[in-house]
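FORM 12-B: Structure-to-Sequence Request
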C-alpha cells in the first residue's frame, strides 16, 4: 500500500472511531469505565484525524509522519468493533431486537 492510501484509510478509521466513541459515551447500558474508555478513544481518534488532516493540507508545514500498515490494520479492527457497538446501542435505544434471528 502506498503511504497516501494508508493515510486515507487511517484517517477514515480515526474519524469513525471518534464519532462512535462520542455516541457510545451516552450509552447508559455500558459501565462508567467502558464509557470513559470510549471517551479516550473518541479523543484519540479526533486528535489523530486533526493531525492527519493538517498534514494532508500542509497546514503550517505540519508533518504527521509515516503511517505503518500495522497501525491501519489495528485501526480497522477497532473501528469495526466500535461500529458494531454503536449499531447495537442504536438498536437498543430504538427498542429493536438486537441480533434478531430469522424465524426458521
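FORM 12-B RESPONSE
SEQUENCE OUT:
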Amino acid at each position: 500500500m502506498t503511504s497516501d492510501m494508508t493515510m486515507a484509510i487511517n484517517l477514515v478509521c480515526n474519524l469513525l472511531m471518534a464519532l462512535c466513541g462520542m455516541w457510545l459515551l451516552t450509552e447508559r447500558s455500558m459501565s462508567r469505565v467502558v464509557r470513559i474508555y470510549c471517551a479516550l478513544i473518541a479523543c484519540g481518534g479526533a486528535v489523530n484525524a486533526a493531525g492527519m488532516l493538517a498534514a494532508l493540507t500542509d497546514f503550517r508545514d505540519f508533518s504527521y509522519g509515516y503511517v505503518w500498515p500495522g497501525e491501519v490494520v489495528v485501526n480497522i479492527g477497532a473501528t469495526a468493533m466500535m461500529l458494531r457497538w454503536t449499531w447495537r446501542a442504536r438498536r437498543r435505544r430504538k427498542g429493536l431486537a438486537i441480533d434478531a434471528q430469522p424465524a426458521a
